[in-house]
Amino acid sequence: MGPLQGRGVCMGKIAMKKKGIFFTFIAITLMAVFLLVSTPQADISLQKDLQSVRARISSVDSFVSDLENRYLETVLRATTHKAILSLIFYMNSTGSYIPNLDSAFSEVMLTGKIGGEPIDSVTGKKIMENNTLTDWNNRIVESAKDTLNVNATIIVNNVSVFQTKPWNIDSALNINLTIKSNVAEWKRNSVITTTISIEGLHDPYFLVNTNKAYTNQVKKSSVPFNQWNITSVREHVRNGTYIQSEKAPGFLMRFTNTIANSTCCGIEAFVNPNKISPSDQRESYIDYLFWTHKFQNNCTQLYNITGLWDEFRHFKLDFDNVIKYNITAQDAVKTC
Predict the structure, then answer these.
(1) Nearest to 209 by CA among 317, 288, 313
(2) Which of 50, 181, 203, 239 could serve as a FRET partner for 32 with CA atoms 20 to 30 Å apart?
(3) 137-142 own/partner pairs: CB under 8 Å, 24+ apart
(4) Which residues contact 254 (CB under 8 A, 6 or more apart)?
(5) pLDDT digits (tens, 9 = 90+) for 294-324
């Protein structure tokens, strides 16, 4: 091999090395470019996923909040009104008191039944059909699945009815609430409360005691407690209105014939002698006193309110109520 040939071989080897380095550099450069291009795209995708999850959680969280603070309260209020109305119609149909109001109220609210029998079939009124708490809870579960694609479970632990004020009925619903989505799970133990007015409802105490012959809807009197006189008493009898009275039973107590004083919630009305038979009875015509016969054997405490006898003959009051309603001597005469 001559000198030129050896030199050519050396030059060839150097060129090959340069090409190898060049291709390696290109490969590294391409990988760097690829990483520069692809890495931000991955971050953007991840951010979009996180935003989607946050939006999903926010929408379900709003649903859970609305469920606890609005939807279930509205359902409870509507169902409470229907259940109380159904129980009044039930007493009207059966002519009897309800032994255990808490138990009956809970059963009607949850199942639409009383003593295992559909209450609507007893009353002949379609009030609770498809309107129980169970019916509404099922609708909420279906709606949650259809609109938000979440699985909702509502377990009723207890539902109760009570009074804290004379003109209102309170009810409370204790539930376990579970909402499951594909991103999170919500668990709540909630107590939902609501209030309905008793005005306009029929007083069950009148229905049972008159064998349905005399019904009286609750209407609050507008007369201030210190402004009673014979004229306002006349209107009170005529209109069947009620006043608050700590010595009288509350509205719910009248469902069970629990005739005792209620300091928070007692109400009383007059018995209209024109609507009962016989109209002349030796009683004080304050409703809860009239049917407990407190003065039947004590006529010395009774007064004929003769100032009303032109319209309400035989109307009588006991001494304490003559004073409370500000009946003067010219309009009141002792019965004996």
Answers:
(1) 288
(2) 50
(3) 137/75, 140/67, 140/71, 140/72, 140/75
(4) 203, 204, 205
(5) 998 888 999 999 999 999 999 999 999 999 9
Task: Return the domain boundaries, the chain.
Answer: 59-197, 204-334
Return the structure tokens found at 59.
């929408």
Strand blocks (E) in the chain: 113-114, 117-118, 151-162, 168-180, 185-197, 242-244, 267-269, 302-304, 316-318, 333-334
pLDDT by residue (tens digit) across 147-201?
A: 888 898 999 999 999 999 999 999 999 999 998 887 778 898 999 999 999 999 9
Concatenate the DSSP letters of all residues of 290-315 into one string. HTTTTTTT-GGGEEE-GGGTTTSTT-
- Taking the C-alpha atoms of residue 332 and residue 336, their distance in angstroms, rounded to an integer, is 12
Tell me whether strands 267-269 and 302-304 are parallel, antiparallel or unpaired: unpaired
The contacts of residue 185 (CB under 8 Å, 6+ apart) are: 178, 179
Residue 49 vs residue 137, higher pLDDT? 137
- Selection from 295, 13, 46, 61 nearest residue 177 by Cα: 61
- What's this model's pTM, rounded to 2 decimal places? 0.82
Task: Please tell me whether residue 151 adopts helix, strand or coil conformation.
Answer: strand
Report in angstroms the alpha-carbon separations of 133 from 52, 112, 180. 34, 9, 21
Please tell me the predicted confidence (pLDDT) of residue 23.
54
